[in-house]
Amino acid sequence: MISKNSFFYLLGIAFLALAKAKNIMKGYTSPKPFDISESERCIEYDIHVVEHWLSHLQKYSHAGQTLSGKNVLELGPGSDLGVGIYLLSKGCLQYNACDVNDLMKYTPDSFYLKFLEKLKLAKNDQTNINFLAEQLEKAKNGDPSCLNYVVRNDFDIVSAFGKGTIDLVFSQAAFEHFDDINTTISRLSTVCKPGSILVVEIDLKTHSRWICDKDPNNIYRYPTWLYSLFWFRGIPNRVRPFQYKEAFERSGWTDISITPLEKVDAYDRSNSGMNKIFTDDKNQMEFLSIMLCARKA
To answer: Radius of gyration (Cα) for the chain, nearest Å?
Structure first.
């Protein structure tokens, strides 16, 4: 009879093959767990993401940071500009976002109409709603806007936004998709002002939906050579928390805080079935997702 570890090992390979085939046929798709057509869910998701970031920002900065007058950068914004609109509604001066995939082009105008209506119902004044609608229209037309969405295949945020321009950096489940975290973090160090704060959520789990629930650390079962056979741009990079911390430290970031958001239950903390490169305790395999905060020196 096949063992549990062998079963998930073989099943994981099948899911990796399916993910690569899907990428070849359809390209990179939205990382959200539901389609943009489910506008109400997407709106609630965007608002929740921002509020979650701000909660961690306040804890990290001891309530010393606000959005007012800040130049904000989001890495990997996903399928819509809802996060940017919500950040502008809460007082940020400029929202910048960079992605390698132009997922925004699939977002219907009806989504934004519903988003603005929701903000209006939440007692935003009409002047603010008009401003948000104006900035959105400018962004969609490619005109200068407080919603500055940039698509670059090389993900060169320095060329996109300039040196020493950014006050706050946010990201939601995007860092795990970056092919070269060292280059990305080095570029962040260039675009950020001294004292800038970074708040990023990183999903460390397997991303294939069904197997994620059953075997969240499945992608760590394989040696590098085998996992590399299924590589495509955006595949989870398998970088662990200590490696993110070291990368940020090398690029001049300080006060690095890593908070686990989701963990394996204590009774299930086992390296059984993990490839040997992930069995050391420093990998913290019990961490399934984290919030990483840091300050630019």
So the answer is: 20
